[in-house]
């Protein structure tokens, strides 16, 4: 089982946002895209037993770690992890059906992946979420072209040095991509360590 210090720190603050944002009284279906080690999905599943969680990852080593966490915690509301490339159309997302999900969660992926993954995330979430479904993203972002504080400026620089396709994305850019895919930015929540949670709601046609 892999362990990420950042996931250990942020899993509880993100859970608090989930508790506020989703219905805890009826059965729900959720997909976590880019589940990483598996720390988040197992933490959320223990607290939110009404949600059936589908973890997913692109990285094979992380997939093995997610499965180790599942085995360790013996959670009946976490499905076996699937291999998922967020840059691909949702038809390649392990058989997840259109408008079948209440919740999509994506933590710390947008800034450390090519922009095609971000575009694919919103395109796919727009397809697989039910009307009024929720997409939650978490991480550091630029706001109106500005990155603050200096630690995030330095982080953005270090990411781009490692891979020119990486870097902090601007919330206004994400909001416009979301709108093109039937999602609207409902709420921005400040989180510890200069991160934010962005909550996007799928528009209903009624």
What does this structure look like?
This protein is of the alpha/beta class. It has six helices and seven strands; from the N terminus they run αβαβαββαβααββ. It has a seven-stranded mixed beta sheet with strand order 3-2-1-4-5-7-6, with helices on both faces. A hairpin with a 3-residue loop joins strand 6 and strand 7. Helix 1 packs parallel to helix 2 and helix 4 crosses helix 6. The longest helix has 17 residues. The radius of gyration is 16 Å and the shape is globular. The termini are far apart. The mean pLDDT is about 95.
Brief characterization of the structure:
The chain has 206 residues and is an alpha/beta fold.
How much of the residues is beta strand, in percent? 15-25%
Total of helices: 6
- Helix content percent band: 25-40%
Number of strands: 7
Sheet having the most strands = 7 strands, mixed
Query: Which blocks of ≥5 consecutive residues have pLDDT under 50?
Result: none
Trace the largest sheet across and list its strands. Answer: 3-2-1-4-5-7-6
Computed structural class: alpha/beta
The whole-number mean of residue pLDDT values reads: 96
């Amino acid at each position: 089982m892999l362990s990420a210090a950042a996931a250990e720190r942020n899993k509880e603050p993100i859970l608090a946002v989930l508790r506020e944002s989703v219905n805890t009284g009826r059965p729900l279906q959720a997909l976590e895209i880019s589940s990483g080690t598996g720390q988040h999905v197992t933490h959320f599943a223990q607290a939110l037993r009404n949600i059936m969680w589908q973890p997913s990852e692109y990285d094979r080593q992380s997939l093995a770690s997610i499965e180790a966490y599942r085995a360790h915690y013996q959670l009946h509301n976490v499905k076996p992890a699937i291999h998922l490339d967020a840059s691909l159309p949702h038809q390649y997302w392990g058989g997840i059906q259109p408008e079948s999900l209440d919740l999509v969660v994506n933590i710390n992926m947008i800034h450390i992946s090519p922009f095609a993954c971000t575009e694919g995330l919103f395109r796919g979430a727009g397809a697989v979420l039910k009307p009024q479904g929720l997409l939650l993203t978490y991480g550091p972002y630029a706001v109106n072209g500005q990155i603050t504080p200096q630690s995030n400026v330095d982080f953005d620089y270090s990411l781009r040095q490692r891979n020119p396709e990486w870097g902090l994305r601007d919330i206004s850019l994400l909001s416009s991509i979301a709108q093109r895919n039937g999602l609207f930015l409902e709420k921005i929540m400040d989180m510890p360590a200069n991160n934010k949670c962005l909550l996007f709601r799928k528009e209903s046609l009624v």
